Amino acid sequence: MIRVLLADDQTLVRAGFRSILSDEDDLDVVGEAGDGAAAVTLARELRPDVVLMDIRMPGLDGLEATRRIAGDPRLDAVKVIILTTFDLDDYVYGALRAGAGGFLVKDTEPAELIHAVRVVARGDALIAPSITRRLISEFAGRVKRPDPAPELNALTEREREVLTLVAGGLSNDEIAAKLVLSPATAKTHVSRIMTKLRARDRAQLVVTAYEAGVITPGWLSDGQR
């Protein structure tokens, strides 16, 4: 059973998400929060597997709530999905920096919402390639990059290649197909990269790849995928 916490200041939005998720046998909505502070409190009390987190909420917003959840070692197993629209600009990149595991647009189809929760809960790919291209590439390009992280020196040539593809939004299966590997081998590479870079999840690998200059914004639009 995948335990889900809903955090949104609009009652009707929470009710809609609850209705969609509760119809699934393997999903259980264990709580609802109307603001970021309540979301953090309930995350600590209920230890859900996934938090669906709106960004714009009164008081403590979703960005800071995500940062607090991601920064709490007691909540390492809790994954946060940001609920966003395409006009939130730098909130998106800021959410990744805060520790969000991925994104859903608020007008997503019910089947996509259900799929996203399941994917996030098992720790697999969290950001769809379309969102990576449209959002992450655009906003990461606005951020001043520091010098490459020293940890990158610990990566093998193959791991750097895999990191580039992860940052492009490819799933383990897609990486395996592109590099002619088995999906299990691709998954192993990703796990080792996360360990070496001390990344919380795949979304954090995207941040690291862009900030370290491993991948440049817009590269996928040139037909390199």
TrEMBL record:
Stretches that traverse the bilayer: none
Domain of life: Bacteria
UniProt KW keywords: DNA-binding, Phosphoprotein, Transcription, Transcription regulation
Residues of the Response regulatory domain: 3-121
SUPFAM superfamilies: C-terminal effector domain of the bipartite response regulators, CheY-like
InterPro entries: CheY-like_superfamily, NreC/VraR/RcsB-like_REC, Sig_transdc_resp-reg_C-effctor, Sig_transdc_resp-reg_receiver, Tscrpt_reg_LuxR_C, WalR-like
Start and end residues of each HTH luxR-type domain: 148-213
4-aspartylphosphate, modified sites: 54
Protein name: Response regulator transcription factor
